[in-house]
Design a protein that fits this description.
single chain; mainly beta; 1 helix; 4% helix
Length: 361
């Protein structure tokens, strides 16, 4: 799948080290060492089973049941791409534009941008066999990642980050890294993501004006920044020295843990300029029970967690929040319950933007 599959599903599957992959919703930190590349295997403390490769997406036996939502002024609305077999809404900017991903009838991954009127534009990196759109800022700059060697569902296919600006694609590849994935961009053009180094370790990065800066939580085994606001505050996931996973907020050079009460795993996904943070929590760190609940954390890591659960859903992820307080994400409805939200019917498609050449470095 596109954005949420990578930014959410693949990351929780990795951190839980589930051999068969998480079935439905989730987000996971990539592993610090990849057994597939000859390194040591790793699994979180208290779990067992084989570790997964950085960013390796899980199998998706339940993905077809996932749906996407926009929560605006207290009302949930479905977000869909016409003709898609699956749609996953990612982040939303202040103009109401939503970046995300969908699968077509041939199960190929495409990115998309949906405007406030519901019109949808497909995003495909030239030469890519699968594209994942992550976030679009207020200036129309879009980031994500892609593969050129098969499906994004296959963990053996390495990924490259990209920036789409002014109709032109640009590669975002950390120098000497095996793999780079871009997850978020703010209105200053700063991009966050993570990369797999040649020694098998996982690090975060901030890219700005052509330069990469590594982001590592002190004493952490792996760091994966997932969102950034205009103040430069980062949220994401990291593994501590004992191999336990924590959400984090990086503000003015100081890292604070984000761990929801009674949750085994807390995954902050997005942060706006007011300091409001959204994400998801899991009660089972192994993901044997894939039930998740979205949350809103207002103005800092020490405030009460407000739950975000789509009506009738068994799992919810709050993936993005803009400065107007609009929230986007995905949910999985209970099979035996009627879906009680209003379907999105005003989406329209427009031609895919094209680039005369493959992305430039």
């Amino acid at each position: 799948m596109a954005m949420l599959d990578r930014l959410t599903h693949s990351r929780l599957a990795a951190i839980a080290a589930v051999a068969t992959g998480a079935a439905a919703l989730g987000l996971a930190v990539p592993l610090p060492v990849s057994a597939a590349r000859g390194g040591n295997t790793w699994a979180p403390a208290g779990t067992s089973g084989p570790a997964r490769v950085l960013g390796a997406p899980p199998s998706e036996p339940e993905m077809s049941t996932n749906r996407s939502f926009l929560l605006k002024r207290g009302r949930y609305r479905d977000v869909t791409v016409p003709g898609a077999t699956e749609t996953e809404a990612g982040r939303i900017n202040d103009l109401g534009q939503i970046a995300g991903g969908y699968k077509d009838a041939d199960r190929r991954d495409h990115g998309f941008v949906r405007d406030q009127r519901g019109r949808v534009r497909t995003i495909d990196v030239p030469g890519a066999t699968g594209t994942s759109a992550a976030q679009i800022n207020n200036h129309g700059q879009l980031v994500g990642y892609y593969t050129e060697t098969g499906s994004l569902d296959d963990p053996a296919n390495l990924r490259r980050g990209f920036l789409l600006e002014g109709g032109r694609f640009r590669n975002l590849d950390v120098p000497r890294a095996v793999q780079t994935q871009a997850y978020g961009i703010n209105n200053r053009g700063q991009v966050v993501g993570d990369y797999l180094a040649a020694d098998g370790t996982t690090h975060g990065f901030i890219w700005e004006r052509g330069r990469f800066r590594t982001v590592d939580v002190p004493d952490g085994l792996a760091t994966s920044p997932l969102g950034i606001n205009d103040r430069g505050d980062n949220v994401g996931l990291y593994l501590d020295a004992a191999g336990a996973a924590h959400g984090f907020l990086l503000h003015n050079g100081v890292t604070e843990n984000i761990d929801a009460p009674d949750a085994a795993l807390t995954v902050p996904l997005g942060i706006n300029n007011h300091g409001h943070i959204v994400g998801t929590t899991y009660r089972d760190p192994t993901l044997a029970d894939s039930e998740s609940h979205g949350f809103l954390l207002r103005r800092g890591s020490n405030r009460p967690f407000t739950p975000i659960d789509s009506p009738g859903a068994v799992s919810t992820i709050a993936n993005g929040i803009n400065n107007n307080g609009d929230i986007t994400g995905v949910y999985r409805p209970a099979p035996s319950r009627p879906d009680n939200r209003t379907a999105q019917t005003d989406s329209q498609t427009s031609p895919c933007p094209t680039s005369p050449a493959a992305p430039t470095s």
